[in-house]
Amino acid sequence: MTNIREELAQKLNQLSTEQLYSVCQFVDFLEYKQQPVRAETPLTNNDTLPKVVNHLKEEQGISHRMRQPGSAIGTIKILADDDEHLEDFRDYMP
């Protein structure tokens, strides 16, 4: 008797490209099902905005890095120090 991996390899070799895509999708589904289930605490109307935002970030896998003061120093270069361009906005200034 052959082992399961060899048997599966033989069967896969007989499939069309379209069928192989279906097999790949099914394997992805099986892997997804094996992931541990996270215990979530439901959001309520009394939750604060930061809690809701953090919950949404976790759901979407968005990580939050803390901004560092002064981290943009040197990234912006002022080519000319003039006020000529402000004349165009004179009508909008108090």
Quick summary:
This protein has 94 residues and is mainly α. It is built from 3 helices and no strands.
Question: Could you characterize the architecture of this molecule?
Answer:
The chain is mainly alpha-helical and 94 residues long. The protein has a domain at 1-36. It contains three helices and no strands. It has helices spanning 4-13, 17-33, 49-60. It is elongated. The protein starts with a helix and ends in a 34-residue tail after the last helix. The relative contact order is 0.04. The model has no long low-confidence stretch (mean pLDDT 79).
Judged by helices, strands and strand pairing, the structural class is mainly alpha
SSE ordering: HHH
Number of helices: 3
User: What is the total tally of β strands?
Assistant: 0
What is the helix content?
40-55%
Distinctive features:
elongated; 94 residues; mainly alpha
Secondary structure layout plus pairing:
Layout (H helix, E strand, L loop, with lengths): L3 H10 L3 H17 L15 H12 L34
